[in-house]
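To whoever picks this up:

The nightly regression suite flagged Sensor histidine kinase as changed. Nothing in the input moved, so I suspect the structure step. Input below, exactly as stored in the fixture:
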Amino acid sequence: MQFIDRERSDLKWNSIRTKLIVFMLLATILPIVVTMFITYSYTTQSLRTRVAQEDANLLYQGGRNLSRLLDDLNRSSSSIYGISNLLQAGYEDPQSNSQVYAVLSGISRSVPDVFQVYLYENLSRKATLVTLNTPQRNYNIAPFVDSVGNSQHSVWVQESHMSHAYGLTSIQPRYPSEPVFTLHRKIERVPSSAIIGYLAIDVKLSALSSIVDQLYEQNREKIYILDDKGNMVYTDDQNMLGQPLREQWYAEQIARSPNSSGNFEQDGNIFAYQRISSLATHWTLVKQVPVSYLTLEANRAAFINILVLAVSLIIIVAATVIISLRITAPIKRLGRYMDQIQSGNLNVDIQPAGQDEIGAVMLRFRGMMDTINNLILREYRLELANKTNQLKAMQAQINPHFLNNTLQIIGTLALELNVPRIYALLSALAKMMHYSMHYEDKHVTLRDELEHVKAYIELQKERFENRFIFRYDVEERLLDLPMPKMILQPIVENYFKHGLERSAVNGEIILLASAMAEGGVRITVQNNGNKIPEARLLQLQWELAQWPPPGSHPLDTGQNAKWPSIGLANVLARLKLFSGDTASLSIGNLHPAGVKITLHIAEKDITESEDH
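Regenerated output under the current build:
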């Protein structure tokens, strides 16, 4: 593309182009990513909460249905007392047998999914078994051990097991064994508690499945019915029927909980439970829902959003790069024009850069240069031929003023065009030029010097791409301290000449000014750059301590003067001329890195300077 700057195509962090691209990408991508994350988190959490509430309602209703089933079985089993007189007296006539069969058949039909009904009569030692409406009977046998049991209750429910013939071994079984749970009842001689027989009702697990199948989604969720010992009454896995559940989540969260219902999340699953108490039976209905199943839809939505984000990101990056290049290319071209003008070529062919605001700046800049060239041709060319020496003297004053005004004009245009960084740099440069142009101001305050250093630092930050920081701490009352002009800036400049590593990214300059307890003011400039070699440091310290050399003029910094450093020598010389011989300058290395330069002005020197 023609608008790309071929000579300066590398993107640096301090360039407007890079910052614009990064800002636009962040401004578009971050809100989308944050919105996706918040939406996903909120959706998954709301799904967890909603599922937990729905499961609690389902299990509550399922618990009521199971209690109703047990109550129906209990009521059906109590109909055995309609033939209690026969059980107490014993019988052997066909009519009595028919009456007994009729009661047992009625019990088997009273509740759906009853597999078989067992009756044992203590007096006659008879056992009767009605399996799917088919009666069988044995004589002179003991009651089946499971029916006798060891329960203190007259009615109880035995956990799930495979059906059996209740000891009727002499009769060939006609039906295959079924997984069942059994309601046992001890038949008592009313009103006494003497046991006259035992009744057992085997119910197929389909009676439970018809209830619990409505409470969960098979192949994805799991449901359990457990008795008070933790044995499995119902589950999808028939191999676990009657077996204890040895899961950690059950032992920690449900078995120890005193609550009748609740829910919790553990091991990537959401569990809900509901306790059921009916007769002497205490069951717990538990539902297990994998979190991955709950978040399946949310994950699909997130995946689709990520795909959309990826496509959007490609479009956004392309659009951002194109837009940023179109915006910054004219600015870079303007910078090249300014470099040529700075080198002395005032007849630069400035080409317009479109119809936008930057193009307007280019047109105004071209008009300004045309005006400058016309003024030079019209006002100064004739005088330049006749008064060369006078013109040189005037240019020394006019050019800085003119450039200062020009920079202010460009800075104003940059501010109008919403390019504050260019305005800030031009303002910093203008401040330095204005500060250095006023030759009559030989003495300034510490406030003036600090402002000049801050302007210089602002420009250096742009030059070194913000690879250092500048901090200062000056007591408020010392800001009006009088001092020679251009004292601090040369000291700070040493860091950029000798101390700052080109690859460093954590440079630091610190300027401190404080009143000393023994009187006087200490100004310290320190950095964390390269140390001065030890031999060179010792030589510098010795030469500064011996200043000035015998026979030397205090301000002689020419080639014949043996100074430790022209910059430091100039600073020390002007400081002593300003405030007396008690003023001093010291230099030393810091550990583990850096250099520290300290200026000391005695209290009496400050007073004398203020009097002057």
